[in-house]
Amino acid sequence: MSTPTRRRLMRDFKRLQNDPPSGISGAPCADNIMRLLFNVFNEKQTTCLQYADTPFEDGTFKLSMSFDETYPNKPPTVRFVSEMFHPNVYANGELCLDILQNRWSPTYDVAAILTSIQSLLHDPNPNSPANAESASLYRENRREYIRRVRETVEKSWE
Amino acid sequence: MEEESDYSYQSSFEEEDLFFEYNHDYQEDLSPSQLEDNSSKDKNNIEIAKFNVLSIQDLIKKKDDLVNRTAQLLDLDNDTTQLLLENYRWKPQKLLEKYMENQEEALFQAGIPQDPKCSDCLQTIPDFTCPIMFESGEDVKFFSLSCNHKFCSLCYSMHISTKINNRIGYRINCPEYKCNLSLKESQIKLLLNDDSELNKYIMIIIQNYVEASDTLTWCPGVDCDKAIELPSFNKVTSRYTVSMVTCSCGTSFCFNCKNQDHRPALCQLLDMWLQKCRDDSETLNWLSSNTKDCPTCKYPIEKNGGCNHITCRNCAYQFCWVCLQDWNKHRDNYSCNIFVESASYEDEELIEVSKKNDIAIDSRKKLERYMFHYIRFDNQEKSIKLAQDLLSRTEKKIDTISKNNGFSWIEIQFLKDAVLTLTLCRNTLKWSFAVSYYMEKNNMSAIFEDNQSDLSCAVEDLNELVESKITPENIDSTRRKILDLTAYVSDRNRIFLSDTMGGYSEDRYKFMVQL
Questions:
Q1: What ipTM was estimated for this complex?
Q2: Catalytic member of B179, B219, B307, B323
Q3: Is B307 a catalytic residue?
Q4: Helices in B408-474 by DSSP H: which ranges?
Q5: What is the pLDDT of residues A96-154, one digit of tens each?
Q6: I want to staple A110 with a disulfide (CB 3.0 to 4.6 A). Which of A12, B91, B339, B490 is the partner?
Q7: Are B262 and B270 in contact (CB under 8 A)?
Q8: Is B177–A107 a contact, with Cβ atoms under 8 angstroms apart?
Q9: Whose CA is closest to B109, among B94, B128, B126, B129?
Q10: What domains, with CATH codes, occur in chain B?
């Protein structure tokens, strides 16, 4: 079955395989192309200094992305499957990210969303917190914040 | 500046129009002379400002007029002007100011390109692929704004309809991420191939226009799509007056807060009062059903077990829970059988003791003050609901009287008029208690309270009379009495309302709250 949405998804996916952003791997679910599963790696990136030394370093977080026929006019539903401790990630794994809500543009594709999420991990926005505890720790007790994040990073290897 | 619309409601609601809430076709009943009458009055017979009822078509015309006029001033085309106006909340003054100050900035803010290169047409481009759905080929038409972000017409129309259906603002931008350029109405028309979507887009603009305008508001009536225009309305004077309007659908509401008639209370007072009722009524209910006041210091006491021997924790007074008498004077400690008509609370000595607990008493007093007004407010509200029953009972009564006694139906209508007047006056009384709760005591408030009690006495008299038994013997005298009293009551009501509204505008009253 070929709908414009599916054709577009195939193109997105082809682009992701031919020219993957560093630190991301993913595949559609075996039974459903409309659902993608990704691993977002946060390896130390020597080329990009600002990413080094962040607490999410070395973590491998699973992420699911569901599309429906409104894609790409509306953003897909994105959520973390792995446990996260991040100021902009809700307890159920949903994200608070502007491009997934009001700033969405149909020119965005899967690779662009993943890159944005990757950079959100390094650079949280504690002013619009989805996880109040994490946001207040990030602002007021950075050491404890880093410790909690490291815990989730270690859990992500299991 | 504005043309008079055909929908002007300059009718005068005289006594006979009291029915109009029940008679939806009342508009046809108005004679042309009434329509031309310039001084409009409402059902309380009070002068009200002129207002117009506007349909969607009228609104579109009004909006187009505004766009036209502004376009001429700015020397721009209508589409561009509309985008500019939308961006400045439909305030031409503000737009002109900003535009004269910094033309480039004003255009940029509204998403209008500086050098309009776009051809406003769809074109085929060989070897170009749409970056959204990857369409390409000779039969694919592309469109782009001056930003040169090209997308195929299909993707463009899907993008536009998604925006329209999700109601994400009135502005529809180029689909490219972070591209600030807006689509004009003509371009949206060109790209959308669905008329119903286009109508939705126009509705969004009209909605935006009405909501941004101070002198326009939507009728809150169920399924009513009319808007009311009150040209004399402005936010500052609305703080001291209540502007009642009536839509062609029969809904009567306050122009400012869209609530039902709440005169003589001002919108702000109404707001505070309703808020207070929401906050306090649960506490009140609980207090009144579960506690009794200590007979001396009036501290609320909850009996959560044990015997009837209560010692007030506040003033150490010992009393019987059942009869609230001094425990020591109590004859039989375990079965109270003293019937007291009313307990006396005025024991000077004991009040002296309780003065130590000023704060507790103060809050108690505040609560009492609130209770006093709330009970009366609530009572009127309940009476209004009962009046609906009274109305149907009265209608039956009218039927039986006219059948049994050979009076004509029209001769008995005075009963129905009386009931309708009662309802109107009870509404006034109801809200007047919200006002008197916030009013500080002085000579002016005394006049207010006198008016209030005059009206309230007259209303109760009339109510009693209306519900009294009407026999063939007394019908003539009763009828005369009811007619007289109805006229008197509606007169009192009018005086009360107009005096209070005058009091607001002359700043005669002092309130305990900042208005």
A1: 0.75
A2: B307
A3: yes
A4: 409-438, 443-467
A5: 888 887 788 888 888 888 888 888 888 888 777 788 888 888 888 888 988 998 888 88
A6: A12
A7: yes
A8: yes
A9: B94
A10: 70-198 (no CATH), 216-254 (no CATH), 267-343+361-506 (1.20.120.1750)
